[in-house]
Please model this.
Amino acid sequence: MVRLPSIQIIGAQKAGTSAVAKWLFDSGYCRPLVFDDEPLYYSKEAHFFDIDWNYNLGLDYYASRFRDDELPALDATPDTLTFAQRVRDTYELAGDNQVNKLAIIVILRDPVFRELSLYNHMAHACRNFDQSELSDWHRQVARSDGTIMTFNEFVHEVTMPALATNEAQDLGKGRSSRHGLYANHLKEWFRLFNRNQILVLSYDELCTAPKRVQDRIQRFLGRAISGSLQEKINSNDSHEKVLTPSTEARECIESIMKPHNERLYHLLEENPGPSMEQRPFPRFHL
Model:
């Protein structure tokens, strides 16, 4: 039997996964090991399921990141949201009924403001990181001359084309924007796993009532967890940060997201989860 993490925080990107993961790691959950030449953020997120090169190295490679058999382990890779089948296959292969014991946490954020947060994250990196530290993912906000797009430009050139594709696992430009099509992704998770294994949380509640979210997670995991959940970890207070989307950008994203959000609300209503989950799930204020 190969031991895998007992908890997967699968996303969404820019929806508070770092805050929840830090609280759990600080309380004693085992972090992923960071191998040679890997970025330090791998100590939170192993990127096994979403990166083909890692995934193709197989089960033993993934398990080798979690070596302390005395502690429950956690992987908080937000990109895992679009790879439900890979998670199912891997945990079935690991044996010992781990596939049916796995606890899955997902946090959902208003897609417009999640997209704005993605843009700010990429733009901050492009302005402040050394070029050697930047990936093509960060450079999505850069114009051909290296300057930074406005958020309106980003929406038109990256977000909208990405949301128009049906390829959920396309790892090209705009892949993170497609995370916001929550109903598409959660439908697959609900098909592959028992609904009571999946706790769906609201980012808005995490920001306004972190203790309530902390209580939901403790009840879901069936254990008291020390420390306090802090709602903000990855804060960027740069004066260049865009705080509010323009009406034009908002309306562009809404034009695609409104029907997807309605599908999400219906999906959650028709597939109720564990008893501590928020019901009904709060609507996004688009």
Q: What stands out?
A: The chain has a mean pLDDT of 92. The first helix runs from residue 17 to 26. DSSP finds eleven helices and four strands in the chain. Residues 23 and 54 are 26 Å apart (CA to CA).
